[in-house]
Structures are given as structure tokens and as C-alpha cells.
């Protein structure tokens, strides 16, 4: 019989999702139109996983005599969508808090090379699993002032995208260097690339190239908006160059001291 615990955890995810989403959408100090658009897009994006969870839950209740094995597909979909919902809500919270200046960037002395190594080690394992070659060129030491946790998040977003949008047998190259008073982080992949028309919208909230195809890969369309916020908060720059079918490079440059 389908485990009641699974159903309860999905229901808790829905309730928590809505609660946090409401919290995420509390007043933001941006223009009224932008705020309205953000709320409309967020509601739309939140509704998709919620609908999937609800549909699968309803289908589960139709066969209360079925075993968990018989219903494993529906439970799996429910859990995956609950995870997606939770990721969406946490990304929305980050952006809403950054809009209302609730999120402060820490000014810590940190070793960017150590942040980069820690991050690439995790992705190296994921790359092996996908038969993608991950090469790194990380200068040591790179001392700078910034927010360690946010810089880690920035690298995770760029590496996660590089991995998501690169097919098997591809390559990803990560470099981290200090040049004069600035540091540079380069994440380059040999993936599917992005067309020239799409590049201007990459950092827009919820923008995903080819929504239908993107739905197959995990993501919220909020990663690069968060990356841009982190870079701006460090008074840095983020540049993209890409060619369809050849690959994409994201180059971040940051001052060593803000
Ligand atoms: P997502 O969660 O969809 O990855 P992002 O904001 O991180 O959202 O990225 C927005 C869109 O930009 C992605 O959906 C994808 O279409 C495109 N994109 C980002 N990084 C890459 C990349 N390295 N290669 C190809 N396309 C990319």
C-alpha cells in the first residue's frame, strides 16, 4: 500500500512551497511593472510543479490498494516536482531579498582558489558520470575580499549550466586567475551554445532558451539572474560569448577589493 509518509511529505512540500513563495513576493523596491511581471512569472512557474504534484497525488488516491512499487512512478514524479518547487522558492527568495536590499554581501578576506577547487571537485565527479572532460587552471593563492558563500554559489551556477548544456564527450574548462587588481573566473564549455538573439535576455528572470527543451533539463531560469546579482554586488562584470553548436564561455571579473 502506498506509504502515507510519502503523501504527507509531498503535501508538506506544497504547503511550505506556498508559504515561502508568499514570503518571497513580499514588497520589493523595484518598479511597479517589474514587480507585477515578477509576481506573474513566479506564479506561473510555481503552478507547473504544483499541478504535477496534485495530479499525481489524485491518481494515487484512485488506487488505495496498490503497493508502493506499483505506484513508484507517480511518487517519483511527485518528489521530483516537489524538489523543483523547493529550488524555485529558494531562488525566488534570494532574488526578492536582494531586490529589497535585505541580503548583504559580506566583506571577508577569502581564498578564491580554495573556493574554486572545492567547487570543481564536486563537479569533476558529475562530469565523469556524464563522460565530460573537466579541465581546470586555478592559480594559487588568490586572496580577495568578498562573500565566500556567494562566490561559491556563483561558480556552482556557472558550472552547473556548463554541465547541463554540454553533451556527452564534451569538454568544460575552468580557470581562475589574478591579474593586477582583479580576479577572473572563466567557465567555458563545448556545449549546445546560445544564439545571438537569445544572449541579451540570458540574465532576465525566468528566461530559458527554448522553454520546451529546457524543461527536460533541470533548472528554474533564475540561476543567471542570481549570478548577475552576485557579480554586481561585488562590483564586477560578467560577459558571455557563445556560438550555437560550438559552446559557451562565461567570464567574470571582480576587483580584489571592493
Ligand atoms: P536554468 O536554470 O534554466 O539553467 P539560468 O538562468 O541559469 O537558468 O540560464 C538561463 C538559460 O540560459 C538556460 O535555460 C539555458 O537556456 C541558457 N544557458 C545558460 N548557460 C548555458 C550554457 N553554458 N550553455 C548553453 N545554454 C546556457
Q: What's the overall geometry? A: globular
Q: Bound compounds, please?
A: adenosine-5'-diphosphate
**Could you name the ranges where pLDDT drops below 50 across 5 or more consecutive residues?**
none
Taking the alpha carbons of the first and last residues, their distance comes to 58 Å
Give the neighbour order of strands across the main sheet. Answer: 2-4-5-7-6
Return Rg in Å.
Answer: 20 Å
Class from helix and strand fractions = alpha+beta
Order of helices and strands: HHHEHEEHEEHHEE
Main pleated-sheet profile: 5 strands, mixed
| Helix amount | 40-55%
Total strands: 7
Overall average residue pLDDT: 89
Task: Bin the strand percentage.
Answer: 15-25%
Number of helices: 7
Subcellular location: Cell membrane
Main location: membrane
Domain Histidine kinase: 41-258
Protein name: histidine kinase
Provide structural commentary.
- The protein is of the alpha+beta class and 258 residues long.
- Helices cover 51% and strands 18% of the residues.
- The protein has helices spanning 4-24, 32-62, 72-99, 112-129, 148-164, 211-216, 223-233; strands at 108-111, 133-138, 143-146, 171-179, 182-189, 237-243, 247-255.
- The strands form 2 sheets. Strands 2-4-5-7-6 form a 5-stranded mixed sheet, covered by helices on one side.
- Strand 4 (171-179) and strand 5 (182-189) form a beta hairpin.
- Helix 3 (72-99) runs parallel beside helix 7.
- The longest helix has 31 residues, at 32-62.
- It is globular, with a radius of gyration of 20 Å.
- The model has no long low-confidence stretch (mean pLDDT 89).
- The structure holds adenosine-5'-diphosphate.
Amino acid at each position: 500500500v502506498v506509504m502515507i509518509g510519502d503523501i504527507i511529505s509531498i503535501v508538506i512540500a506544497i504547503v511550505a512551497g506556498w508559504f515561502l513563495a508568499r514570503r518571497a513576493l513580499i514588497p520589493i523596491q523595484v518598479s511597479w511593472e517589474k514587480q507585477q511581471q515578477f509576481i506573474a512569472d513566479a506564479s506561473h512557474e510555481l503552478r507547473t510543479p504544483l499541478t504535477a504534484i496534485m495530479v499525481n497525488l489524485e491518481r494515487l488516491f484512485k488506487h488505495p490498494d496498490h503497493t508502493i512499487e506499483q505506484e513508484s512512478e507517480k511518487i517519483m514524479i511527485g518528489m521530483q516536482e516537489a524538489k523543483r518547487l523547493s529550488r524555485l522558492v529558494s531562488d525566488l527568495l534570494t532574488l526578492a531579498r536582494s531586490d529589497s536590499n535585505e541580503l548583504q554581501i559580506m566583506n571577508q578576506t577569502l581564498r578564491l582558489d580554495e573556493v574554486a577547487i572545492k567547487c570543481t571537485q564536486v563537479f569533476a565527479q558529475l562530469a565523469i558520470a556524464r563522460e565530460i572532460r573537466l579541465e581546470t587552471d586555478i592559480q594559487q593563492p588568490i586572496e580577495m575580499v568578498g562573500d565566500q558563500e556567494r562566490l561559491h554559489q556563483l561558480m556552482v551556477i556557472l558550472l552547473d549550466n556548463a554541465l547541463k548544456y554540454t553533451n556527452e564527450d564534451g569538454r568544460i574548462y575552468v580557470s581562475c586567475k589574478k591579474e593586477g587588481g582583479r580576479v577572473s573566473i572563466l567557465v567555458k564549455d563545448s556545449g549546445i551554445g546560445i544564439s545571438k538573439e537569445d544572449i541579451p535576455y540570458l540574465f532576465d528572470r525566468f528566461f530559458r532558451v527554448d522553454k520546451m527543451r529546457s524543461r527536460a533539463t533541470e533548472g528554474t531560469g533564475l540561476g543567471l539572474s542570481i549570478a548577475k546579482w552576485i557579480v554586481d554586488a561585488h562590483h564586477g562584470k560578467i560577459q558571455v560569448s557563445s556560438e550555437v553548436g560550438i559552446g559557451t564561455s562565461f567570464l567574470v571579473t571582480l576587483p580584489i577589493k571592493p
